[in-house]
Amino acid sequence: MIQKCLFPVAGYGTRFLPATKSTPKEMLPVVNKPLLQYGVEEALEAGMSNCAFVTGRGKRAIADHFDISYELEHQISGTSKEKYLEGIRNVIENGVFTMVRQREMKGLGHAILTGEPLIGDQAFGVLLADDMCINQGGAGVLAQMSELYNQFRCSIVAVMEVPEDQISAYGVISGEAMGDRLYRVDKMVEKPAPEDAPSNLAVIGRYILTPDIFDIIRDTPPGRNGEVQITDALQTQANKGCVLAYKFEGQRFDCGSVPGFVEATNFVYENLY
Ligand code: UTP
User: Fold this and answer.
1) What pLDDT, on a 0 to 100 scale, did the predictor assign at position 42?
2) Closest to 249 in 3D by CA, of 191, 198, 170, 181
3) Does residue 225 carry a pLDDT above 90?
4) What's the total number of domains in the chain?
5) Beta strands 29-30; 4-8: pairing state
6) Residues spanned by the domain of 228
7) How many Å lie between the centroid of ligand 1 and the Cα of residue 259?
8) What is the pTM of this model?
9) Residues contacting 130, CB < 8 A, separation 6+
10) Which residue of 36, 128, 204, 261 sits with most ligand 1 atoms within 8 Å of its CB, as the best mutation to test the pocket?
11) Alpha-carbon gap, residue 24 to 55, rounded angstroms
12) Which atom of ligand 1 is nearest to the CA of 10?
């Protein structure tokens, strides 16, 4: 059973400036709940009660959000407004939250390596909060992947089909189909030109990683954009046949972009609020 989930939340969120100048992108609300809380709830639902945040400068609001606010508790205790705190109280009671700071933004691979002291020598989930995933009436995406991990015991990436004109925004996989929604990955390419993309299956921000990934990242030179890419490290694991790609059940919203964020907001307001 996977118990820990890593949340790389150190990025600058430049696409949301000026909102993200002094507010972490992950704390922007989709209706009335910060993006990151949706992610943490998904991890808790998957049994990953140990949430490890890789944060950076200017991200202290994240630590405060996953802690009690005594003034607030005191002010609204016993009033009709208390119900508004129930959701986050539940999260705080059911999770353990740890943090480490990534001092320089050197890419997702580097962010994951920065989280190593919080994870140790065990398989773990990785959730990018700006990919918001909802599977109405069914298990969340991390829970689906965790169940697969229990069966296959190797790294797993969540994938979805994307149109050709959008493929160069993603890591893209190719592999042999192992069933309805599962592939054994043989190739992973970060942000390929459409003509170089090995398939239309794009990796989104949900991973299960086995702990050997840390040594592999350490040995992985910076790739595209001078950043340490998790895609490159996963290719090394894939060369040994140890990476699966899973076409998840549910919907994914790209909340790292303004149109995706608006779409998610409308969806949540109409369906979940
Ligand atoms: P993004 O590149 O989508 O996020 O990284 P960003 O940099 O915050 O956004 P823009 O492009 O400037 O608008 C994907 C995820 O990886 C984290 C980010 O916080 C985000 O959740 N990340 C990325 C890190 O934690 N550290 C890094 O060095 C890079």
Assistant:
1) 98
2) 181
3) no
4) 1
5) unpaired
6) 4-271
7) 17
8) 0.96
9) 13, 25, 26, 35, 205, 254, 255, 256
10) 128
11) 10
12) 25
Residue 116: pLDDT over 80: yes
State the average pLDDT for the chain: 95
Pocket of ligand 1 contains residue 105 by CB under 6 Å = yes
pLDDT tens for each residue of 47-92? 999 999 999 998 999 999 999 998 988 899 889 998 898 899 999 9
C-beta of 10 in contact with ligand 1 (< 6 A):
yes
> Per residue in 3-46, pLDDT tens?
999 999 999 999 999 999 999 999 999 999 999 999 999 999 99
User: Is the predicted pLDDT of residue 252 greater than 90, yes or no?
Assistant: yes
Q: Please tell me if the CB atom of residue 257 comes closer than 6 angstroms to any atom of ligand 1.
A: no
CATH number for the domain spanning 100: value is: 3.90.550.10
CB 108 less than 6 A from any atom of ligand 1: yes
CA–CA gap between residue 42 and residue 36 (Å, rounded): 10
At residue 128, does pLDDT exceed 80?
Answer: yes
Q: If you measure from the C-alpha of residue 10 to the centroid of ligand 1, how many angstroms do you get, rounded to a whole number?
A: 7
Give distance in angstroms: CA of 268 to centre of ligand 1: 23
Q: Is 19 helix (H, G, I), strand (E, B) or coil?
A: coil
Give the number of the atom of ligand 1 that is nearest the alpha carbon of residue 9: 19
Contact between 54 and 3 (Cβ < 8 Å):
no
Q: Does the CB atom of residue 110 touch ligand 1 within 6 A? A: yes
